[in-house]
Amino acid sequence: MFKKYIIWDREELGITNNTLDNSQIQYRCERLHNLCNSATKLYYPIDFKQIPENGIYIMFQENEQAHGDERIVRVGSHTGQNQLQSRIEGHYIKENKNRSILRKNIGRCFLKMRNDKYLAIWEQKGSSNKQINYEKELEKEISEYIRSNFHICIIKTDYKKETRMELESKIIATISLCNSCKPSERWLGLFSPIVKIKDSGLWQVQWLYKKNLILTDIDLEFIEQNLLFIKE
Ligand SMILES: [Zn+2]
Predict the structure, then answer these.
(1) Read out DSSP for 40-108?
(2) How much distance in Å is there from the Cα of 66 to the middle of ligand 1?
(3) Which has fewest Cβ within 10 Å: 52, 124, 157, 212?
(4) Structural domain range at position 25
């Protein structure tokens, strides 16, 4: 039932999608938001056993709105097969910024917000100037922030990396090009030293503004059919 994705053939995709105007992009983004907001949203503490082995997670963040509902602020997947659960655990549970780019990015914002010079050390993996206790404190603060501010919904996919990658990249491209999706004035990401995050309003740096990767009707249908609904 999973269609074969052809993300890597960008030129071919570009021919069909470059003709989309802003209102069409906005319409698709709105449909994406309507669909994802209707799925089961998982809040911390999350029962990780409910999460399928393969798929994509969509993140919402407190006080962020778009299209009359919660704004999607991040889309992510996993590289290795059957790793979706542990990927999400990496954001919420395992206190190690080097295993979660979201954790690293939240930490960057905290440090930047406070003009903390430790930012330079936070950027490096295994720096000799690393202050273990200080990082532990930071990691704890990041956990608290993520647990109380982020919640997710899931789109199930097959086991193929290409399926996840294509869907993830198209969702990111579509939201980044949508005129209705803007961060609130108090969005934490506005403190990010990463310009792409600050400008896009998304916790992402890849696949932004790719006009040849706008979600198609087939993609949106796929999303509708594979969003995770958990019965109470
Ligand atoms: Zn939008």
Answers:
(1) PPB-SSP-GGGS-SSEEEEEEEEEEEETTEEEEEEEE--SSTT-HHHHHHHHHT---GGG-HHHHHHHH
(2) 6
(3) 124
(4) 10-226
